[in-house]
Amino acid sequence: MNTTTPRNWRKSSHSTGEHGECVEAGSSNGMVAVRDTAAREAGAIALPATAFAAVLTAARTGALNL
What we know:
four-stranded antiparallel β-sheet; 4 strands; alpha+beta; flat
């Protein structure tokens, strides 16, 4: 994430401890980073906050074909 790593990581309320399917997001300087809690050392994917909001909207409305 540019030169700043988020310090405000938050775990998704949809993450469960059962199968290790946990995701965290953190923001800094207009960017949002997303990482897997089971592999934090692998790093994070960073998106501009507006792009992250668009991904969330698409997921919530079923517009993603996953």
